Amino acid sequence: MRAAVLALQGDFTAHRRALEERGLDVIEARSSAELDAVDALVLPGGESTTMLRLLAGDGLESSLREVLSSGIPVLATCAGLILLAREVRTPVQPSLGVLDVTVARNGYGRQRESTICPVGVIEPAVLGTTAFEGVFIRAPRILAVGAGVETLAVRDKDPVLVRQGSTLAATFHPELSRPSPVLDLFVRMVRER
Question: Which residues participate in catalysis according to the annotation?
Fold first, then answer.
């Protein structure tokens, strides 16, 4: 099984390493050709507006849309979740619109409000735990979820980990935590496909 981490900008190296530690074969994808023959995809944290510009500038957006519609497991973290969201607010910006959530960029504050805090698990059987730490760095806040979106974990009452079909999306950085039940779940999704 081969996974690709979109490696245009952001925290792609930490994702690659964390998934390789879990036994996945992982490449850093920077071109359409590198996205073609993969079994899973990771959209890492970083700066969503920069990622959108790079996707458009390199002609990668149409290839990425094809991969996203193929049904392979997808993990989107922080800015990756913003890229996928149906609607992005504060400020309003374009997105790929494939994940039925509304998000606010920097919804928990700017860099100085970044924090590590407990995340409560809604579905312990899915994640294998009742709580874990979440690393929130200029994190988006999920304001609304669509009917087909399952909330797996919350920060206070806010959804912070959601799943829609084969897409798993986190407002935080699971690649920075040890242990990481989110990455463990993603790897299971890849292997069970």
Answer: 78, 173, 175
Cα(54)–Cα(103) distance, integer angstroms: 21
Number of Cβ within a 10 Å radius of residue 143: 16
CATH classification at residue 24: 3.40.50.880
CB-CB contact of 16 with 26 (8 Å) = yes
The mean pLDDT of the chain is: 95
Q: What would the pLDDT profile of 114-131 be if each residue is shown by its tens digit?
A: 899 999 999 899 999 999
Residue 148 domain boundaries: 2-192
pTM across the whole model: 0.95
Question: Considering its fold, how many domains does the chain have in total?
Answer: 1
Q: In whole angstroms, what is the distance from residue 100 CA to residue 27 CA?
A: 28
Confidence of residue 64 (pLDDT cuts 50, 70, 90): very high
3-state secondary structure 79-133: HHHHHHEEEEECCCCCCCCCEEEEEECCCCCCHHHCEEEEEEECCHHHHCCCEEE
Confidence bin at 23 (pLDDT 50/70/90)? very high
